[in-house]
Amino acid sequence: MRSAFLATCLGLSLYSNAQVSLPAEGPPAPEPEKDALKFNLNQSGSHYFQFTLSNQTWLRFNESNPGTLVENRVKDNTFDIGLRRTRFQAFGQITDKVFVYFQFGMNNFNSQYNTGNNRKLHAFFHDALGEYKFSKGNQLKVGGGLTIANGLSRFSQPSVSTIMTMDVPVFAQTTVDQTDEFSRKLSVYARGQIGKFDYRFILSDPFPITSSGAAQNGLTNVSNFAQYGHTLQQQGYLIYQFFEHENHTTPYMTGTYLGKKKIFNIAVGGIYQKDAMWHMEIPNPTDTIYEDLKLFAVESFLDMPLSSKQDAISAYAGFFNTDYGKDYLRFNGSMNPANGTSLSAPSAITGHGPTFGNSHPMFGTGKVIYTQVGYLFPENFLKSKSRFMPYASFTHAKYDRLNGKSMEIYNAGINCLINGHRSKFTLDWQNRPTYETSVATGIVKGARKNTVTLQYQIFF
Predict the structure, then answer these.
(1) What share of the chain is helix, strand, coil (3-state, %, to 5)?
(2) Which ranges of 282-400 would DSSP assign to H, the alpha helix?
(3) pLDDT of 66-80, one tens digit each?
(4) Is residue 349 assigned to a domain?
């Protein structure tokens, strides 16, 4: 499949080259591309307003978890077509001091997106914020609104249109669709760049778990987000940049610069919320125990050119200590292609999130190591105008509720960058574990399953 994919991209690129070649006496080369949807508000362009659009289409084959049902029929595997993300952004530097940012769109729209009797799109505002700059440079910006500005990790606030891998490590978006709106919260924040440091501090007002749209379990002996009480959430993130500073226009963090910047940094981040979680005490079920949400990460990111041939490397490694309270474990599968399970006790896993389709234990109390690496081949590789960037990623998690067993997820793939991130194909393979329960030993590992996805992204 990969050979066919590379051949297809190469063929498209060569065909494109043949179509646009001009004789020597032809018209001059066109000017470099401009931001077509950017409108200057003053003569210098320092005040502007800009629109961007992005769309990620997935074609996917998935080996199903045990007991998977699609429309009440058992399916050992599935093929689906979906929109992973469709987004519209509007932002701009309105004055020397004032910046605004809005994002509207939807996520995970496939045939199982809404299996009730309502097929209307669930598009919503992802971001709506205003920001004021208190300094001449980027030393201090203060903003507020609905925003993805987060602590913990760069992948807690990723620029999804510039990521190297086909998808982000979603576990780093720790409360996604539980007490936030697809990782966004109502927040006030301060962020800036001082010397070699890049910082952000956030105070968030989380949504109640009861407004997540999912049915809530009653109080059990394992932790879940508390349904009584309300506290604010404190977040912080600090980066030390060894070379160039990263982009600082929006709170989003770039996935890969494709060799256009020299970036190497280390970072620490954290999220804390008092009494965010609860569980019942055993053996006295009338006692309710409240626990704090405590999340911490340390990470390093490298993204830089390697030679004059315009090849580049991108690499990341992070360690996450995630404390959601006693034995918290949540299953999740990106754009799940299924909608039910035939398993019942004692094989079914009770808890948070669906276990069918492509789900795996994505969030939990424990420790996670995540790493990824990719290489951007030089320009004119295989005599093609397209650029090729293979990558691999690895997730290793030890969640308390998995009885000391580790969980490993492997991804490998390749990008065919027809016009950078503006137009690219990505072919991705994932290998993941499955889980069932045993009366004698609790949660046990089952057979490993594979997923192959072809994505086409447009971003401009």
Answers:
(1) 10, 50, 40
(2) none
(3) 999 999 999 999 999
(4) yes
Give the residue numbers spanning the domain of 333: 37-459
| CA 14 to centroid of chain Cα atoms | 33
Residue 82: pLDDT above 70? yes
Please give the Cα distance from 86 to 88 (Å, whole number): 7
> Residue 314: inside a domain, yes or no?
yes
**In CATH, what number is assigned to the domain containing residue 74?**
2.40.160.10
Cα–Cα distance between 414 and 426 in angstroms, integer? 6
237/153 Cα distance (integer angstroms): 7
Helix (H, G, I), strand (E, B) or coil at 19: helix
Nearest to 388 by CA among 425, 342, 422: 425
Is residue 350 situated within a structural domain? yes
CA 255 – CA 36 distance, rounded (Å) = 23
pLDDT in tens, 269-300: 999 999 999 999 877 777 899 999 999 999 99
Contact 438, 346 (CB under 8 A): yes
Task: Output the pLDDT for position 112.
Answer: 80
State the greatest distance between any 2 C-alpha atoms of the chain, in Å, as a whole number: 88
- Could you tell me if residue 292 is inside a domain? yes
Domains contained in the chain, number:
1
Of 260, 292, 265, 295, the residue nearest 279 (C-alpha): 292
Question: What's the first-to-final CA gap in the chain, in angstroms?
Answer: 28
- Residue with tokens 């394992």, as numbered in its chain: 222
For the chain, what's the residue count? 460
Helical segments of 229-268, H only? none
Q: Where are the beta strands (DSSP E) in 153-287?
A: 185-194, 197-205, 224-225, 233-241, 263-280
Contact 134, 360 (CB under 8 A): no
